[in-house]
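Researcher: We're reviewing a set of sequences before deciding which ones to prioritize for further study. For each one, I'd like a predicted 3D structure that I can look through quickly. This is CENP-V/GFA domain-containing protein. If possible, include the structure in token form so it fits the rest of the review sheet.
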Amino acid sequence: MRIAIDAEPLAARMCWCRLCQYLGGGSGTVNVCFPSDKLTVTGEVRWHHSIADSGTAMRRGFCPECGTPLFSLAESRPHLSFIRAGALDDPDLLAPQAVIWTDAAPDWAHLDPDLPHYPAQIPPIA
Ligand SMILES: [Zn+2]
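Model: Here's the predicted structure for CENP-V/GFA domain-containing protein, in token form for your review sheet.
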């Protein structure tokens, strides 16, 4: 499957919530935000519905062929789509600007000291 993106990224964050640690195989995840209406998805995405640690109802999208995590969408903010940075053709598109859910990170986690740290969720991007 392919995701065509016709917009610049709005933000990028490193997330250490427990769910991201499951998805990341132990590490956190890096998520890049785009306007949903600028994305064109070709091929199948499998969706998993869940409630995030923040209490937000989420949809998380995966490639049904290989299991690669692709999307994280908040049901309450459908205009924003977070794409897992590892799924991008260019993971250098935008470096993380903040580290969130640091309270959930394991003691061995390397948290970039040059970025702002937040113990849990931060307010959504407008
Ligand atoms: Zn997370």
